[in-house]
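Protein jag, Rubritalea tangerina. Tokens?
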Amino acid sequence: MNWDDASEKILVTMLSHLGFSVAVERETTADGLCLQIMMEDSKTIIGRNGDRLEDLQYLVNRILNKHFPDAPRVKVDCDHYRNEQEGKLVEKAKVLADKVLESGKSVRTRPLNAYYRRIVHNALAEVDGVRTASPQGQARYKRIEIMPA
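Tokens:
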């Protein structure tokens, strides 16, 4: 069994043990493999602000890396929730960058996990006149400061 088959099996097994009957579709994205959970009532799997999806993704990757140490990171999504959130996040970050360019003053995002911080940093790297920074530390959720360049 290869790592992508194993990652799908891990996810389906976990969800079945939790009492869910789901279909999982594999998608190839710019970030690599994404396991898309397809089901009727997706709110239960997604959780509040996607926190359960984050937890599922973390567990799938931990188990996968135990058996396939060289396997790349796998993204877990449900009914394209993360794609929608990422699009909204990029738009919000660009609005904040415009505010910085207009006012000349720094602004901060809401607290974001590492994955979402990376998306914001990458999206604003293309914007002339602003730069971004994340604070150091062990906190799971951190704010990004968007500053004039």
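The beta strands are 23-29, 32-38, 75-78, 107-108, 130-133, 145-148.
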